[in-house]
């Protein structure tokens, strides 16, 4: 159905009487905080909101939540509709395509009515080569439940699984849990033979684990006071954490560490990297107490990653190769690098995965992801072809080193998540499963042919062409009357490749166009695309997004009063920046966990992740040019008495990446400086950076946001 306004059965509820709305939340009067840097003194009236344990802070956030609920009470019915549409379209009892590792198939099940996945395995049967399947997601015959997230989550409002790592012999499961959302996990070991959880309980761990070859030793990571992963530890199974040994401690505050076991299970890899520089150390998995060996000492500006393959280490690097090249060095005595794939400007090599007889390189070119196969011992490299003009493809879980098949995951804006097995010998691709999409409210089965996806290009202020991906129903008009949502991120070289969303169908079926702006600062068009949107070029990210928004209007996709912008985290910084830069370009803005007080945070080395971020944003503490540049765009510093679009900010109290007080302060200042605007703050009081943890809670959160978006798009 195509309409000029969203299809809602109760349109009157979309325009509440303004005289019945509650008053904005009053802000407690506190003594303003002053800071002075490089001769510039800044007064912060709302700095007190950073005191998380202050009862007045909690009272303020609680009052904001009550105000937001009251201001959106008229959308309660629409929220329920949207949630129900997502639930109805989702196969709630479901089972992932099992992945083979040695003598078992590993998979995850979901059960209707339950929030979290159930992690299972089943023994491989004689002559069984294809993954087993079940009817309607039912448990497989003979399955063994390894971990049930629903049981672990009982009694907790939040639950997140960090590590899930089965030992090479299949005996132990290392897993870690977080019940607050602060990404501080407690690590445990389960005996999969008896089902008992060992007494080896290690609190305060981070992501990343690796087993030794004999499964006697587990490596893990912890963070420092600034939440920087800085230590790799060695733990002997059956002992207390007090006996654990630090294998590597990283004292340079720009760097963080990670640990993993190679697919060959020959080496434990300690990855040490900053935003611009890498160093990799390896430990033979058969000798877990051995000293880590350096593959290549760190050199400022040189990034590299290591994959083990037979007698060699594969090195993916940017030494003299802006978009990266592939080389190798001896596994016995790492030294000089021998080229394997030369640098090709415009083709960004992103990772390499090694199997016994094949290498697979994940890459991107012309804004699209791809996979290149390199046969070992003969045969020309080749790229795997995919049918759609816009898509995302990548390797899925492939734990077996000796295999002729690899598991791929594919999706697009109209194609649901799809799992393929690709035969590296015959070059045949077999679709194992496409995530089912059940009929919507009208009872019709989902048909990708009802929708169309486009790649368009906007022209930035400096003449740069910026790609845009769009999806809409086929009957959506191109006369500027259609409502639209434009999404953006644009930082850390993270690419917003096309993805499928069941919840998004509720917008598309109401005539809304969904667009993704692939702006500079992301990695869609290679390393240069990233470099042109960071440090002292960061404003390109914001002007690119505005150019994309204005292009959608100029090209007839929508109108500025029918366009809502959305972004999260660093994309929330983007939302705040474009609100200041071009408030007339949008009817509304959704900023999730938004990094809107960037300058204040990056000036404080004691805050989580600040020092590691200096290579992304610059160091305003020491560099007056960086200070002035950041101050000129950071949203909180630049709120002005202008007509802002309606703004919905969503955050979480326990977020350790973007602290809750950034959006809280931002909304308070917006109300004070531009009081005529419509600003809402919603804080999850028991969650972290990713928001609610359970799938039903996540659907409700998305329904809340989409209902607000539809409300804005329906207003004249």
Automatic annotation (TrEMBL):
Highest taxon of source: Bacteria
Gene3D superfamilies according to UniProt: alpha/beta hydrolase, Prolyl oligopeptidase, N-terminal domain
Protein name listed in UniProt: S9 family peptidase
Source species: Micromonospora coerulea
Keywords assigned: Hydrolase, Protease, Serine protease
Family: Belongs to the peptidase S9A family.
Polar residues bias spans: 1-13
Domain Peptidase S9 prolyl oligopeptidase catalytic: 499-713
């Amino acid at each position: 159905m195509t309409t000029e306004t969203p299809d809602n059965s109760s349109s009157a509820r979309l325009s509440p009487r303004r005289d019945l709305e509650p008053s904005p939340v009053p802000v407690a009067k506190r003594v303003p905080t002053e800071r002075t840097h490089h001769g510039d003194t800044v007064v912060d009236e709302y700095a007190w909101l950073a005191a998380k344990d202050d009862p007045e802070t909690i009272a303020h956030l609680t009052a904001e939540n009550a105000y937001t609920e009251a201001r959106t009470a008229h959308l309660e019915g629409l929220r329920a509709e949207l949630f129900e549409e997502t639930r109805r379209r989702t196969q709630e009892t479901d089972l992932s395509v099992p992945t083979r590792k040695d003598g078992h198939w590993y998979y995850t099940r979901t059960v209707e009515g339950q929030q979290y996945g159930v992690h299972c395995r089943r023994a491989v049967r004689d002559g069984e080569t294809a993954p087993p399947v079940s009817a309607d997601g039912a448990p497989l015959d003979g399955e063994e439940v390894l971990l049930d997230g629903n049981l672990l989550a009982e009694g907790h409002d939040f639950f997140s699984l960090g590590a899930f790592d089965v030992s090479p012999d299949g005996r132990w499961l290392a897993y870690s849990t977080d019940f607050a959302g602060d990404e501080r996990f407690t690590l445990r070991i389960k005996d999969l033979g008896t089902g008992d959880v060992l007494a080896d309980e290690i609190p305060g761990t981070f992501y990343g684990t690796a087993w030794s070859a004999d499964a006697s030793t587990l490596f893990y990571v912890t963070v420092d006071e600034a939440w920087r992963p800085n230590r790799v530890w060695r733990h002997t199974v059956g002992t207390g954490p007090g006996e654990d040994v630090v294998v590597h401690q990283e004292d340079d505050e720009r760097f963080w560490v990670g640990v993993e076991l190679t697919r060959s299970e020959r080496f434990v890899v300690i990855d040490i990297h900053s935003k611009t520089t890498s160093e990799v150390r390896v430990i033979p998995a058969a000798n877990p107490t051995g000293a880590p060996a350096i593959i290549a000492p760190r050199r400022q500006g040189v990034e590299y990653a290591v994959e083990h393959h037979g007698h060699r280490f594969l090195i993916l690097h940017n030494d003299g190769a802006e978009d990266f090249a592939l080389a190798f060095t001896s596994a016995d005595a790492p030294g000089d690098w021998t080229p394997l794939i030369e640098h090709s400007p415009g083709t960004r090599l992103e990772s390499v995965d090694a199997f016994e007889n094949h290498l697979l390189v994940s890459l991107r070119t012309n804004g699209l992801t791809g996979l290149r196969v390199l046969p070992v011992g003969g045969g020309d490299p080749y790229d795997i072809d995919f049918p759609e003009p816009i898509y995302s493809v990548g390797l899925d879980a492939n734990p077996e080193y000796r295999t002729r098949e690899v598991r791929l995951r594919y999706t697009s804006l109209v194609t649901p998540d799809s799992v393929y097995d690709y035969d590296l010998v015959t070059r045949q691709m077999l679709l194992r499963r496409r995530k089912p999409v059940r009929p919507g409210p009208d009872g019709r089965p989902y048909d990708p042919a009802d929708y169309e996806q486009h790649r368009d290009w906007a022209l930035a202020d400096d003449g740069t062409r910026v790609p845009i991906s769009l999806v809409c129903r086929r009957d959506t008009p191109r006369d500027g009357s259609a409502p639209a949502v434009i999404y953006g991120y644009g930082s850390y070289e993270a690419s917003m490749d096309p993805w499928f969303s069941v919840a998004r169908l509720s917008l598309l079926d109401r005539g809304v166009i969904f667009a993704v702006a692939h702006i500079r600062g992301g990695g869609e068009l290679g390393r240069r695309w990233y470099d042109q949107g960071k440090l002292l070029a960061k404003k390109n990210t914001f002007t690119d997004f505005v150019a994309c928004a204005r292009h959608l209007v100029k090209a007839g996709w929508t109108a500025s009063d029918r366009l809502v912008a959305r972004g999260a985290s660093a994309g929330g910084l983007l939302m705040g920046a474009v609100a200041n830069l071009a408030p007339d370009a949008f009817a509304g803005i959704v900023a999730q966990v938004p990094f809107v007080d960037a300058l204040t945070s990056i000036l404080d080395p004691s805050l989580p992740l600040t020092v590691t971020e200096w290579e992304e944003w610059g160091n305003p503490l020491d560099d007056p040019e960086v200070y002035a540049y950041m101050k000129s765009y950071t949203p909180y510093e630049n709120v002005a008495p202008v007509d802002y679009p309606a703004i919905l900010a969503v955050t979480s109290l326990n977020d350790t990446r973007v602290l809750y007080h950034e959006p809280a302060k931002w909304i308070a200042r917006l109300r004070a400086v531009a009081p005529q605007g419509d600003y809402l703050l919603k804080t999850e009081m028991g969650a972290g950076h990713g928001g609610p943890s359970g799938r039903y809670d996540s659907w409700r959160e998305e329904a809340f946001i989409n209902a607000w978006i539809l409300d804005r798009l329906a207003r004249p």
